[in-house]
């Protein structure tokens, strides 16, 4: 909220909702934007002078910017798009986001949940606008170049969004950066998890190439492991390491019959498809789970030619961790979702799965994470037929290559919450291997944070 006469406007920092109306409305362009690069904090400049109600007041970040894990200035680029300033909008997005087109396609957009326009009609489609601006910039050559001014070399393990973001920022800071990727392809779960129909491969490749062009060296088919005695960093020849190896091991259902032929873990099923391997589903497919992986598996099975795809989830639609739009898409495409249902055993014939026995559930009290606990309804068991069953019930970090690193009880890597450093000096970690399976934009944020910590450490 701004008050005052022509030449002395005053911002009430506590009342300001950062709606931008004053910036856009001032005919003399007297009020201008001001941003500090380090913190992405915004204030407002009056003819070169920061003028808040009190000098120590800070104008709060707009809710959308606050909600975005990398504090992307959504309001800023949406306003620039509205003015037709597409190049400027793209530059603003790229200032903090090394994978804008990827986010434009698959970000779970917490910014839109926070958008105040929701109170009027519906939130601004911030993610779609980012996609639009990234598409506009497809032909525009990346202008930034890493300077490689600094002598120190950094190894980034894993080429998912956390690794790519960390490598991008470190390269721009002037370090020499090399990525080791175990798989023959780059991109992590963006490439071998998320199906192509949701994230076109040329979009991902374009953004990876832009990071490579900065000067980041990328080596595929390079598996990295710790030897367990803490000397790995010294032996590696690098000055610091950022680990971003994701959570690629599938959790199991823990029901009898799980080792029958025809039962697959969700991430492995998607990896096979994404690596171009031939996958036969049969006509009837059952999918178990309620997250993005389960939804992507079910939609992929339909595309592979399955005639009937049934998805079983033990809670209700409200509790599903998958992105709601993707759930609706799956239903529109013909996936039958059975809520409040869980498998109790797999049924086989001659060693091959032919179906499963399920039980109906009801929701009890909320658990420690606030989600209502599913409780089996005794005597409600029933059987279903299936030629293939795919379990997408969670992922874990593979501990095998991580000897010597402290882990949390859930198998994720323990790091200092401020710096992202592990128990080993000079070794940092981020992304899914620290948080457990999460979101791409959180992985990007953790990679960016680690880049800053590594710079600090190497000083
Ligand atoms: C099916 C599916 C759908 C999803 N949908 C969405 C979505 O719509 N929106 C969203 O925001 N998020 C989504 N996610 C989540 C998102 O993809 C992840 O949170 C994100 O990719 C995690 O990034 P990361 O960099 O931590 O790890 P990853 O992307 O998992 O990358 C880790 C990389 O490290 C490599 N690696 C592992 N071990 C080694 C080793 N020893 N040496 C060398 N390299 C190694 C792996 O091969 C991999 O390439 C989805 C995930 C899946 C599986
Ligand atoms: S990166 Fe995601 S959360 Fe951030 S502004 Fe873009 S769509 Fe919103």
Distance between the termini: 42 Å
**Cofactors and ligands present?**
flavin-adenine dinucleotide, iron/sulfur cluster
CATH class of the largest domain: Alpha Beta
Query: In the CATH hierarchy, what is the superfamily of the largest domain?
Result: FAD/NAD(P)-binding domain
Low-confidence stretches: 33-57
Query: What level of helicity do the residues show?
Result: 25-40%
Task: Give structural notes.
The structure is a single chain. With 459 residues, the chain is of the alpha/beta class. The protein folds into three domains: 1-60, no CATH class; 153-247 and 398-458, FAD/NAD(P)-binding domain (3-Layer(bba) Sandwich), CATH 3.50.50.60; 249-395, FAD/NAD(P)-binding domain (3-Layer(bba) Sandwich). The chain is built from 16 helices and 23 strands. It has helices spanning 21-25, 63-67, 74-82, 86-96, 100-106, 110-114, 126-136, 161-172, 189-192, 201-214, 232-236, 266-274, 292-303, 324-333, 432-435, 440-458; strands at residues 2-3, 10-11, 31-36, 41-46, 49-50, 153-157, 176-180, 217-219, 226-227, 240-243, 249-250, 263-265, 284-288, 308-312, 336-338, 341-349, 352-366, 372-376, 382-385, 388-391, 395-396, 402-403, 427-429. The strands form seven sheets. The protein has a five-stranded parallel sheet, covered by helices on one side. Mean pLDDT is 88; it is low at 33-57. Bound molecules: flavin-adenine dinucleotide and iron/sulfur cluster (SF4). Iron/sulfur cluster is lined by residues 68, 72, 74, 103, 107, 109-111, 126-127, 130, 441.
Task: Draw up the topology in text.
Elements: E1 2-3, E2 10-11, H1 21-25, E3 31-36, E4 41-46, E5 49-50, H2 63-67, H3 74-82, H4 86-96, H5 100-106, H6 110-114, H7 126-136, E6 153-157, H8 161-172, E7 176-180, H9 189-192, H10 201-214, E8 217-219, E9 226-227, H11 232-236, E10 240-243, E11 249-250, E12 263-265, H12 266-274, E13 284-288, H13 292-303, E14 308-312, H14 324-333, E15 336-338, E16 341-349, E17 352-366, E18 372-376, E19 382-385, E20 388-391, E21 395-396, E22 402-403, E23 427-429, H15 432-435, H16 440-458
Parallel strand pairs: 6-7, 6-10, 7-8, 9-22, 10-23, 12-20, 13-14, 13-20, 14-15
Antiparallel strand pairs: 1-2, 3-4, 4-5, 11-21, 16-17, 17-18, 17-19
Helix pairs in contact: 3-4, 3-7, 4-7, 5-7, 8-10, 8-16, 12-13, 13-14
Bound molecules: flavin-adenine dinucleotide and iron/sulfur cluster (SF4).
Iron/sulfur cluster (SF4) is lined by residues 68, 72, 74, 103, 107, 109-111, 126-127, 130, 441.
């Amino acid at each position: 909220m701004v008050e005052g006469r022509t030449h002395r406007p005053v911002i009430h920092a506590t009342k300001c909702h950062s709606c931008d109306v004053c910036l856009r409305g001032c005919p003399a362009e007297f009020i201008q934007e001001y941003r500090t690069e380090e913190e992405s904090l915004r204030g407002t400049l009056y003819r070169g002078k920061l003028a808040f109600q009190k000098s120590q007041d800070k104008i709060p970040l707009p809710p959308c910017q606050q909600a975005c894990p990398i504090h992307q200035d959504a309001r800023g680029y949406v306003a620039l798009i509205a003015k037709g300033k597409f190049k400027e909008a793209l530059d603003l997005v790229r200032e903090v986001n090394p994978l804008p087109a990827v986010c434009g396609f698959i970000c779970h957009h917490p910014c839109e949940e926070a958008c105040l326009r929701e109170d009027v009609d519906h939130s601004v489609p911030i993610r779609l606008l980012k996609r639009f601006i990234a598409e506009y910039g497809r032909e525009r050559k990346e202008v930034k170049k890493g300077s490689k001014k600094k002598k120190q070399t950094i190894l980034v393990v894993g080429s998912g969004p956390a690794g790519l973001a960390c490598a991008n920022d470190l390269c721009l800071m002037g370090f020499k950066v090399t990525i080791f990727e175990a798989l023959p392809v780059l991109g992590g779960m963006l490439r071998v998890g998320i199906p192509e129909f949701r994230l076109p491969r040329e979009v991902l490749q374009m953004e990876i190439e832009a990071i490579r062009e900065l000067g980041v060296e990328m080596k595929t088919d390079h598996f990295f492991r710790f030897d367990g005695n803490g000397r790995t960093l010294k032996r590696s020849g690098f000055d610091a390491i950022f680990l971003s190896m994701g959570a690629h091991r599938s959790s199991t259902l823990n029901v009898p019959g799980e080792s029958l032929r025809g039962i697959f873990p969700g991430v492995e099923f998607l990896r096979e498809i994404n690596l171009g391997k031939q996958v036969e589903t049969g006509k009837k497919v059952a999918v178990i789970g309620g997250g993005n992986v389960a939804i992507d598996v079910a939609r992929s099975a339909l595309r592979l030619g399955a005639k009937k795809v049934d998805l079983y989830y033990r809670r209700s639609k409200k509790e599903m961790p998958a992105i709601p739009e993707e759930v609706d898409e799956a239903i529109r495409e013909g996936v039958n979702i059975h809520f409040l249902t869980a498998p109790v055993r797999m049924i086989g014939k001659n060693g091959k799965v032919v179906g499963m026995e399920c039980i109906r559930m009801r929701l009890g009290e909320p658990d420690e994470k606030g989600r209502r606990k599913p409780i089996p309804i005794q005597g409600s068991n029933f059987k279903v037929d299936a030629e293939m069953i795919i379990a997408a019930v969670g992922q874990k970090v593979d501990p095998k290559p991580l000897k010597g690193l402290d882990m949390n009880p859930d198998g994720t890597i323990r790091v200092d919450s401020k710096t992202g450093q592990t128990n080993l000096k000079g070794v940092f970690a981020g992304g899914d291997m620290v948080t457990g399976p999460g979101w791409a934009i959180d992985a990007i944020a953790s990679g960016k944070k680690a880049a800053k910590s590594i710079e600090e450490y190497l000083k």
